[in-house]
Amino acid sequence: MTKRWRELRAAVERITGQIDQLDRRTEKMEVILMVREPTTSVAADAYEGLRKQVVTAVTDRMAHLAQLVQLDAALTAGAEADTVGKLARGWVEQASLERIVDPEHPQRDLLFEMVEDLGGRHEVLEPAYVDALTGRVIRRGSIRRADGAAERPGGPDERRAPWEVTQ
Question: N or C: the chain end with fewer CB closer than 10 Å?
Answer without folding.
Answer: N
